[in-house]
Amino acid sequence: MSSQQTAITTHHVETPLGRISYASAGFGPVALFVHGVVLNKHLWRYQLAELSDIRRCIAVDLLAHGDTEITPDQDVSVTPTQKC
After folding, report:
1. In this model, does residue 75 exceed pLDDT 90?
2. Is the model's pLDDT at 80 over the cut of 70?
3. Distance, CA of 18 to CA of 69 (rounded, Å)
4. Angle 1-39-49 (CA atoms, 0-180°, nearest 5)?
5. CA neighbor of 6 nearest in space, from 22, 21, 24, 31
6. With pLDDT > 70 as the criterion, what percentage of the chain qualifies?
7. Of 9, 26, 35, 39, which is the most buried if we count CB atoms within 10 A?
8. Greater pLDDT, 40 or 17
9. Phi, psi at residue 51, to the nearest 5°?
């Protein structure tokens, strides 16, 4: 299937931490795509389209990113690492 014809669908799953959004395409063994800070699942749209003929591709929106929802009082701050 060419990238022009690939059906990428968006899904949501309810969790204790909030509603998680993810995009998926294809069938077969899973390939999971995780974005970095201040990005979202749409970063991976071309990879999902190109790889969906050989893998079930899943791109997740992390908490407080993209279409993933959190509660107004939920702390999603990035904790700095400690220097040794």
Report:
1. no
2. no
3. 6
4. 0
5. 24
6. 87
7. 26
8. 40
9. -100, -5
Burial of 55 (0-12, 13-18, 19+ CB in 10 A): middle
CB 49 within 8 A of CB 8: yes
- Cβ atoms of residues 33 and 59 within 8 Å: yes
Q: Distances in Å between the alpha carbon of 18 and those of 12, 45, 46, 49, 59?
A: 10, 23, 27, 27, 17
Phi and psi at residue 60, in whole multiples of 5°? -100, 150
In degrees and rounded to multiples of 5, residue 50 shows phi and psi of -80, -30
Beta strand pairing status for 9-15 and 56-60? unpaired
Per-residue pLDDT band for 31 (boundaries 50, 70, 90) equals very high
Predicted TM-score (pTM) of the model is 0.78
Count CB-CB contacts under 10 A for residue 31.
17
